[in-house]
Structures are given as C-alpha cells and as structure tokens.
Design brief:
- With 279 residues, the protein is α+β, with helices and mostly antiparallel strands.
- Strand 5 and strand 6 form a beta hairpin.
- The protein is built from eleven helices and ten strands.
- It folds into two domains: 149 residues, Jelly Rolls (Sandwich); 93 residues, Arc Repressor Mutant, subunit A (Orthogonal Bundle), CATH 1.10.10.60.
Length: 279
C-alpha cells in the first residue's frame, strides 16, 4: 500500500495534524488495527475504491466508494480491512479540533463513526466535486478550502488549559496523574475534566491512558527489552495490567498483537497514525 503525505496550508496547521493519501492496487489486502484514537479523522473514500470494512467495537460499518466519513476520538477496539483496490484521503485533526470544526461540545462527536457525505448540501457538493477532479492536488485543494471555511472559531482562553495539558501529558508519555497535570496548567482537576470533555470529548485520564498505551505499542516494536521490562518502563504495574489494556483497546492479547505486527506489510496489522504524534 502506498502512502502519500499531503502538504497542509499554514492556516490549517493549528487544526490538522496530518493528511495522507492511501492507495492500494487490486488483488492486495491490508488491515489496520487501531491503537486508541486520540485524533478525530475524516475519511474521503474516492470513487475508484472497492468497499472497505470498518469495525468499531463489535459493529461493522462498510465504507462505500464516493463517500465521506467522520471518526471521533475513541478507545474502543477498531480496525479497517481493505480487501482490494482503494483510494482514500485521510485527514487527522488535533485532539481538540472537533469542537472547533462542528462548533459544539466535542463529547457529542466522540466515540462515534458516521457517514457525513449527505448531511448537508455543502458536504454533498464537496463529495461530488472531489470525485469529479482528476488530480490529487485538485482534490486536496477542494478539501482544504472547505476546512478553511469551517475553522472560523477563535481559540478561547480556556483552550490554553487543554493545549498545555496535552503537551505535558505527551512529554510524560501518559505516565502522569491528573492532579499533577491540573497543577501544571494552574487549574483544578474538576475544571480540567470539564474543559477536556468540551474540547476533546474524553476525560484527561482517558487521554493520558491512551497516550501511555500508544507510546508502549509504538516503542516496544523498536526495542529489544522483554515485555515485562517494557511494561514496567511505561508505568504498568505488571503484565496483568498491560494485558487488560490490550483487551480493552485492541481486543487481543499482547502476544497475539505483536505476532500479527510481524506479518508482511502487504497484510499490515498495526498502528495507522499515532506513532509520529507520540514519538
């Protein structure tokens, strides 16, 4: 599967962390098993794509060609299976950007997936225009123009708490108590909880736990330490504690996950996007 990193206009960089084009030829198959998603994402499924199967928890949602989908932040086990040719543009937002995009509390848009192609005339027009353009550059320009019009809300004062808290949790690799985070950003734990639910849709504890788990998954595949040594280094009490997180987030054991991660990249099982953000 080919991945093309797309350039993001400076005006959108405060909200979009990464954008990629995924292409796969007919006859190939790939599977992505997500680590916890701390990034909201838009998936633009182009018209030449074969059906993609998306699993969220125990629910399956087929991703249809010539459609647009939104995927909110979530800690449920999730995966995507691409069984033939695909062309997909993936736009990853910063954890807090859903509230600015939709102009509403982010908790309404967390832990959900839905097709957004036909929700308004603007989305229908964008979907039609994208699939009528021949070049990737023109498709991406249309998407960026659309997003620029949506991100019109200014960052409020309370946003600073969220921004600084995420930076601190990232620095600590998620191995940090919420009281300590609140102290670092000069607010109360209760206020931090309310602000996180508004801007991200998840509690700061869930975000910190997800960061710790994602960092463990990304780093362990690069290390030569034993599972127990790596788990201890990432703040897990023991292997039972780590095992519970794998079942909660991935619905598989650590051993099964890392065995699957070693299969050829034509059948990739692993992490789609979190590594660069959390490394």
């Amino acid at each position: 599967m080919e991945q093309i990193l797309l350039d993001i206009h400076p005006r959108l960089q405060p909200h979009i962390i990464k954008a990629l084009m995924f292409e796969q030829d007919k006859g190939l198959e790939s599977m992505f098993r997500y680590v916890p998603r701390i990034f909201p994402a838009f998936l633009f499924i182009l018209k030449d794509t074969h059906q993609i199967d998306s699993f969220h928890g125990w629910e399956m949602l087929p991703l249809k060609p010539a459609s647009i989908y939104y995927m909110g932040v979530s800690c449920k086990p999730a995966s995507i299976t691409c069984s033939s040719n695909i062309q997909v543009i993936v736009v990853l937002l910063h954890p807090y950007s859903a509230s600015f995009f939709f102009g509403d509390d982010a908790h309404y848009y967390s832990d959900i997936r839905f097709e957004i192609s036909d929700t308004t005339p603007d989305w229908r027009q964008l979907n039609e225009q994208i699939n009528n353009r021949n070049s990737l550059q023109k498709k991406w320009q249309l998407i960026q123009d659309f997003f620029t019009k949506r991100f019109t809300h200014d960052f409020g004062y309370t946003f600073n708490y969220v921004s600084h808290a995420i930076q601190y949790m990232h620095y600590q690799k998620g191995i940090v108590g919420i009281d300590e985070v609140a102290k670092q950003v000069c607010t109360s734990p209760r206020n931090l909880l309310d602000i996180f639910k508004h801007y991200i849709g998840m509690s700061p504890k869930k975000i910190a736990d997800a960061m710790r788990f994602n960092t463990f998954v990304n780093s362990f595949q690069q290390e030569s330490r034993s599972l127990l040594e790596a788990a201890s280094a990432h703040g897990y009490y023991d292997l039972s504690h780590l095992h519970k997180d794998f079942l909660r987030y991935m619905a598989v054991s650590p051993a099964d996950f890392f065995t699957m991660a070693k299969v050829p990249k034509s059948n990739l099982h692993g992490n789609w996007e979190e590594a660069d953000y959390l490394s």
